[in-house]
Amino acid sequence: MKSINLVLLPGLLCDASLFQHQADALVDVGGVTVVDLTGSDSIAALAADALAQAPDGQFVLAGMSMGGYVAFEIMRQAPRRVRGLMLMSTSAQPDTPEAIATREKLIAQSETDFPEVIETLLTRMAHPDHANTPEVGGVFQSMATGLGCEVFARQQRAIMGRVDSRPTLAGIKCPTLVVSGRDDALIPLEVQQELAAAIPGARLEILEQCGHLAPLEQADQLTLILRDWLATLAGGKPAAVTREMQSPAAD
User: Fold this and answer.
1) CA dihedral 170, 238, 226, 81 (to 10 degrees)
2) Of the candidates 62, 61, 89, which has an alpha carbon nearest to the alpha carbon of residue 180?
3) How many CA atoms lie within 13 A of 209 on its CB side?
4) 164: Cβ–Cβ under 8 A, 6 or more apart, which residues?
5) Comparing C-alpha atoms, which of 231, 208, 212 is closest to residue 220?
6) Reported pTM
7) Domains observed in the chain
8) Which residue, 87, 35, 111, is CA-closest to 197?
9) Tens of pLDDT along 139-154?
10) 60 phi and psi, to 5 degrees?
11) Which of 27, 89, 182, 189 has an alpha carbon 20 to 30 Å from 205's alpha carbon atom?
């Protein structure tokens, strides 16, 4: 496989630990950069932060959840930099008034009881079989606690203010892969199926027994999917495939 630069965009209250398994396993493909998305309070500014941290030239971009919102903005700001796009556990839709109200309540609660906010988020994000495991629940709690409530508030403000990316999906020209956990309670599978269907030529992968935190909940399978996809982008031969690629309409 030819060397390739991979840029990974974490989700809400996540840092490089979210992608530790993938970064370690894919070190042979070239450069792997996990972007820090903690310093700004708008998606546009976070996209600029990400581009400043990315390697020179083209790269493959992979974003999870909030990282996906940032990826859509990068596709607007610098589409020629992106060689391939991977979207995990994310949506092109803007926040609803109900979702904004919920986020505002969590921001207020975080100022007095941040540990309880973390527990609430984890319950919503992870598959019930994974929420209390060290590999999923433990890692998320560690990341969130380390980042703190000020980062939480900034990121929530950015997420609430994001634009509707659906009108720009048809303009995405690079190879695109959408990955969804079948049991994602935050962004349901049908929303991610619609996302894949709206991007020309996009493919959809569905991870079984997986909620919102795909890089942690199905770390081995996601790494295999990513490795095979990178091999295809680089013009190499994918490794032996143990699962079937699905079209956006498949379920």
Assistant:
1) -50
2) 89
3) 8
4) 92, 93, 94
5) 208
6) 0.92
7) 1-251 (3.40.50.1820)
8) 87
9) 999 999 999 999 999 9
10) -95, 130
11) 27
- Provide DSSP, 74-139: HHHH-GGGEEEEEEES--SSPPPHHHHHHHHHHHHHHHHHHHHHHHHHHHHHS-TTTTTSIIIIIH
For residues 30 and 124, what is the distance between their CA atoms, to the nearest angstrom? 34
Structure tokens at 225: 């999917």
Query: Phi, psi at residue 97, to the nearest 5°?
Result: -55, -35
Token digits for 233? 């982008």
What are 44's two structure tokens?
């546009």
Contact (Cβ atoms closer than 8 angstroms) between residue 198 and residue 170: yes
Measure the CA–CA gap between 192 and 89, rounded to whole angstroms. 7
Q: What is the pLDDT of residues 220-246, one digit of tens each?
A: 999 999 999 999 998 755 444 333 334
Sign of the Cα torsion 13, 151, 31, 63 reads positive
Q: What is the 3-state secondary structure (H, E, C) of 182-197?
A: CCCCCCCHHHHHHHHH
Q: Which two tokens stand for residue 200?
A: 């020309």
Alpha-carbon distance 169 to 148, whole Å? 33
- Using DSSP, state whether 63 is helix, strand or coil: strand
Structure tokens of 182?
């079948």
Q: Which helix (H) or strand (E) holds 221?
A: helix 219-233
Instruction: Give me the count of residues in the chain.
Output: 251
